[in-house]
């Protein structure tokens, strides 16, 4: 099997070149990729499928996309297009839909997200969606960065001064992790050290935005269990109830209704508890 | 759309065939694509990997596929091959396995699913599995439609008369959503309007089939929380307990045992409650 | 970074640039595939993205990968590199990240996993992560097997003598399944027959390793519900508490923190119950 298969893979390159020369036309699936990457001027039309291509399969889906998703949802008050882009980028990474970032990471930059913030979001979500999901985002985002001339000095460095840690809050947080110290000592050590004392304290993404992408990833990944802590943390850092409500509306479309409706009772309880606390003050 | 797409496919076939002659075949990954697209007469053998290719990695997996999955499960009484195809198409979309639709959407048509129903399923599942999952299904299904000569007039239109709404039932349903009106007003507004007053009332997929693909997507996506409502709704519209049981058997193979066993207690409770109600009548 | 990126592209994508002149070029993502499959000497550096490519998007992510993931986590005592590879291969399959297996299946073999064990893991996980996820693993693993000269006789056969069943334990297990006999008779029949009387009794993967990959897939897939049974089963077959703790540490990085923290309370309860039982003896 060895030599047989190796011969195969060696000849593929010739095959691809020859085929390109002969036809100038890749397969239907590849054609979508090419249509994207050959666009020289990135713009809001760089969708993976053209509206006409979607209409050839599902005319109503394209209609809803234009009328409701682009025509209404993205323009709703209560959450800026910049924040909506952050929500969608996080959702795409969390859901293993990284190829769509060729479009959405570009759109995010147009909506005001800095390339450095996209970069730091990927690093942040490596911890919240797994290394593989983050690494899958690198390729598409690299294409977007290259097309837009993003340079090394535009990106957050690997090392750098960390923001001071809020010790009281972090000690309270650690109480939750430490109950599992005997279950998985390694996980707890990395949680208390690398994750919360280093990653979260990097200054290249605001605390509020780190919560925004974490909450988005948790909802989009169907992981409501850790939502209570991260919603509270994000709201302590400036996310408003109205913004969270709009994040959920955005996520209903990009992660599906069921993911959002599983998050709804958790969000409701958090809102009520915070209102109760506020009233008690 | 028809002739345009067919022309493209034809050049792709020529390109692949020529390359095969010259080189004796592409890489393993590309070979799967080519094997698919060079089949002139779509049939049940259009698998992404040939049985021999699977045997080169996991002989037992291919054996189980032939003997149990194709040899038994697909032929079990209690659920038609047409419905089993709908279950699998929904599961593939929900699980982000859209490339497999090149095979399964084709097989669905052979099993009696109308192209219009596949189209409407994609639109429907945009809401239940997220826009990205639905859009990912468009490319592979477009290839299948093109190869089979599906025309624009074979598809459901973007707009059209809606079926009359069962107001009493919809009011009861809205009670569930409305408890979250202060949590995410946008989500609740789109739920009560676009989702249930428009999408569900489009006549291009029966109420029973909308429930079938919704339930399949929920089970396949590991989202048992919304299952109670959708199982009841589907059974009100004609899904029988025996059919739901067979849907779960089909999903055990296509979405994995754990997803199905997480759905089992929910289904059991729904069945018992409905039996209790029936007995009380 | 721009010119740097372009220079790299020129060297890495030599053939692609040529194709680009003639036609319109494959995407960067496709180029990575080619870069991989043309590597003649598989080695531990066969990553899908080079460290430099990752640094061009997320310098800190690459830094964490080198310093913490490769520099520490993979080397932690308590779980062998061989077992860590099994954990990661299972996680990749469960999470639909099969393309990464081009790297991780190769690394697994270098870490001492036998090709036959990878093969049997794929067949095993067809049942625990769905047929589509398993089939998606076949292509990448086939490339790895071919590059390493793995032959048909190195793989587990489709048929073969089964290990004797522990009837007492299996009867206890069946009690859990049988409560759903009226919900989905087909699922329960295949659970009690094909899954536990045949698949689990195949001798090509140890009982302990079957539990290791099952537990890894459940955690990585966010399916904590079936974890109690499979953790207990695995620990009965030799998995130690320390090993499970390290599996969770490995999975924190590869499946994300939330998946692991959803598994933590389940693992804690299992450990405490087993300790209680042990103390009672």
Brief digest:
By secondary structure, chain A is mostly helical. Chain A has 14 helices and no strands.
Give average pLDDT of chain A, whole number: 86
Q: What would you give as the CATH superfamily of the largest domain in chain A?
A: AhpD-like
Total helical segments of chain A? 14
CATH architecture of the largest domain in chain A: Up-down Bundle
Low-confidence stretches of chain A: 1-45
Radius of gyration of chain A over all CA atoms, rounded? 22 Å
Terminal CA distance of chain A: 73 Å
Largest interface, counted with CB-CB under 8 A? A-C, 79 and 82 residues
User: In terms of quaternary structure, what is this?
Assistant: homotrimer
User: Which geometry of chain A do the CA atoms define?
Assistant: globular
Topology summary:
Three copies of one chain form a homotrimer.
Chain A: H1 2-23, H2 28-37, H3 51-55, H4 59-70, H5 81-94, H6 101-110, H7 115-129, H8 131-148, H9 167-178, H10 185-198, H11 207-220, H12 227-236, H13 241-255, H14 257-280
Helix pairs in contact in A: 5-6, 5-7, 5-11, 5-13, 6-8, 7-8, 7-11, 9-10, 11-12, 12-14, 13-14
Keywords summarizing the entry:
281 residues, homotrimer, mainly alpha, AhpD-like, disordered N terminus
Q: What does the model show?
A:
3 copies of one chain form a homotrimer. Chain A is an all-alpha fold. Chain A has 14 helices and no strands. In chain A, α5 (81-94) crosses α11. The first copy, chain A, is globular and about 55 Å long. In chain A, 52% of the residues are buried. The model of chain A is unreliable at 1-45 (pLDDT under 50). Chains in contact: A-B, A-C, B-C.
